[in-house]
Amino acid sequence: MDLTLRHRRLPGVSVIAVRGELDLLTAGLLEERLQQLRRRGDEFVLDLAGTSFIDCSGVGALMRTHHRMRQGGGRLHLAAPQPGPARVIRFADLDAVLAVRPSVEHAIGAAFNDHQQTSRRLIEAAAASVVVRTIDEPRMI
């Protein structure tokens, strides 16, 4: 079965609807497309409501994407997995590492919250790294 991806970008969050089977034949395509869509500091929400099957290749693709997202300051959120894929997610312990939400709306809300926190931390880090220089007035000797 083919894999179909539909993307919409919200401020700081990309929502990708994944339709079909996430397996050996399609996992690489998903990773490649997510890599193309990734922006530093953004959050990803994968809407899995239309994903009927996930195998170990799909699990690997999700984990690699998760690690890339974390390195770039973002996070991967999984939304609305169907019963079969939800079992695979639980058995593979992905739900201990990834944010898994019951609906796309819940995942988007969590992603917005995470994005705001990340943005705040980046701003604070940038402000802390600003060096303030003072110029002494010339002195008369």
Walkthrough of the structure:
InterPro entries: Anti-sigma_ant, STAS_dom, STAS_dom_sf. Belongs to the anti-sigma-factor antagonist family. This is Anti-sigma factor antagonist. It holds the Pfam family STAS. It contains four helices and five strands. Helix 2 links the parallel strand 3 and strand 4. Strands 1-2-3-4-5 form a five-stranded mixed beta sheet. It starts with a strand and ends in a 12-residue tail after the last helix. By secondary structure, it is of the alpha/beta class. The mean pLDDT is 90.
SSE inventory with pairings:
Elements: E1 3-10, E2 13-22, H1 27-37, E3 43-54, H2 56-71, E4 76-79, H3 83-91, E5 99-101, H4 104-129
Parallel strand pairs: 2-3, 3-4, 4-5
Antiparallel strand pairs: 1-2
Domain STAS: 3-111
Pfam family, one: STAS
Organism: Actinoallomurus acaciae
Domain count: the total is: 1
Radius of gyration: 20 Å
Strand content: 25-35%
Low-confidence stretches are none
The CATH architecture classification is 2-Layer Sandwich
Number of strands: 5
Please state how the strands of the largest beta sheet are arranged side by side: 1-2-3-4-5
Distance between the termini: 85 Å
Multimerization state? single chain
- The percentage helix is 40-55%
Order of helices and strands: EEHEHEHEH
Which superfamily, in CATH terms, is the homologous superfamily?
STAS domain
Total of DSSP H or I helical runs spanning 4+ residues: 4
General form: elongated
Q: Main sheet?
A: 5 strands, mixed
Mean of the pLDDT scores?
90
**According to CATH, what is the class?**
Alpha Beta
Question: Remind me, CATH topology?
Answer: Transcription Regulator spoIIAA
Q: Structural class per helix/strand content?
A: alpha/beta
